[in-house]
Design brief:
The protein is α+β, with helices and mostly antiparallel strands. It has two domains: 157 residues, Mannose-Binding Protein A, subunit A (Mannose-Binding Protein A, Chain A, Roll); 121 residues, OmpA-like domain (60s Ribosomal Protein L30, Chain: A). The chain has seven helices and 15 strands. The strands form four sheets. Strands 1-2-3-4-9 form a five-stranded antiparallel beta sheet, with no helix packed on it. Strand 1 and strand 2 form a beta hairpin. Helix 5 crosses helix 6.
């Protein structure tokens, strides 16, 4: 009995020490930014106070297939946590916000950096998992072997491993779900949250106010006669010329890049056309560019999203070409696909459709008046 009791005590002591170590391990995380409902910490994590989910502050940074993305998420150790996982389709859709134009032109908080427009989710239909587009907020079925423009973004629930953060920890630790609001995955979102009651303030000790001192008799002070004021000199008015405000100039540069039907890969024959854009950006380091992809309105599959995805893929290809082949900083270039929604010619003729199948660079740069 004594041996059994000793073993239990040893286990309890070990658990307490382990808990203290875990708390100490995360107690240095400091709030470094806020964006609406999101809080960023210096350990590379971003808290969504609406869903109580903790996101990695950036994706894996390169093209990745579904199996590798799942492995990446589950083996991710950002912030020292060990329970990261691949997000669900619903969690990704809830992260999308059409009112936000974040980093690289994607619709989510600027505190999370996406380098590709599509993020893998854990749901599958048969052999095909879903990706969520942070250009359009839609979820698509995708072949699990596909890698192009797809990314892995780890997520975890605060109901998992214990963690404390310096500024902003109250948001995570003082929130509990109202009633039985948890679903099968253990998450709470879209529900009413009830803050935990704060402990009552400790009453202050009574302060004894000393009796007022009797004021001393005032001393007589001789006041010198007032001097006659001298009229100040009238200042000379100086006219300062107004500084002219810089003006944002927008330049549209068509790119003579042609694609094979339903393809988005760039042929080497178009190096010179893309190089011209790269040279312009290098000569104007303050300029930024949005690569726009466009298609005609032909839809033989009766699936409008195909053209949207194709135009996005073509714009992404040009963006990556500028980054990988010509060394343009990725933060200066974003890409967006408009599909058939911005024609410059009639789609009723072959010539018009050819003109509409295009890629353009919209360049913004500041120039003085």
């Amino acid at each position: 009995m004594k041996k059994s009791l000793g073993t239990m005590v040893a286990i309890m002591v070990a658990a307490i020490i382990s808990g203290l170590f875990t708390t100490a391990k995360y107690s240095n995380a400091v709030e470094i930014g806020k964006d609406s409902r999101f809080i960023a910490y210096d350990n590379g994590t971003v808290l969504d106070t609406k869903t109580n989910l903790l996101w990695a502050a950036k994706d894996n940074g390169s093209n990745i297939n579904w199996n590798d993305a799942k492995s990446y998420c589950e083996n991710y150790r950002g912030g020292g946590y060990t329970d990261w996982r691949m997000p669900t389709k619903f969690e990704l859709k809830d992260l999308y916000d059409d009112s936000i134009f974040g980093k690289n032109g994607y619709h989510l908080t600027k505190l999370i950096n996406l380098t590709g427009s599509f993020v893998w989710s854990s749901e599958t239909t048969g052999t095909k998992p879903f990706v969520t587009s942070f250009q359009y907020g839609l979820a698509y079925e995708e072949s699990s072997s596909n890698t192009r423009r797809n990314r892995a973004l780890p997520v975890r629930s605060l109901s998992g491993e214990t963690a404390t953060v310096a500024s902003g920890a109250a948001v995570a630790s003082n929130i509990t779900p109202a009633g039985d609001a948890a679903d099968a995955s253990g998450q709470w979102w879209g529900k009413k949250y009830v803050p935990k009651a704060e402990p009552p303030a400790v009453p202050m000790e009574e302060v004894v106010t000393p009796p007022p001192e009797v004021p001393a008799a005032p001393m007589e002070v001789a006041v010198p006669p007032a001097e006659v004021p001298v009229a100040p000199a009238v200042p000379t008015e100086v006219t300062v010329p107004k500084a002219e405000k810089p003006v944002m100039e927008e330049v549209v540069m068509p790119l003579n890049v042609k694609f094979d039907t339903a393809k988005s890969n760039i042929k080497k024959t178009y190096d010179e056309d893309i190089k011209n854009l790269a040279d312009f950006l290098k000569a104007n380091p303050e300029a930024t560019a949005v690569i726009e992809g466009h298609t005609d309105n032909v839809d033989i599959h009766n699936e409008p999203e195909r053209n949207m995805r194709l135009s996005q893929a073509r714009a992404d290809s040009v963006r990556h070409y500028l980054i990988d082949d010509f060394g343009i900083d990725a933060s200066r270039i974003s890409a967006i696909g408009y599909g058939p929604n911005k024609p410059i010619a009639s789609n009723d003729t072959i010539e018009g459709r050819m003109k509409n199948r295009r890629v353009e660079a919209v360049i913004e740069m500041v120039k003085p008046k």
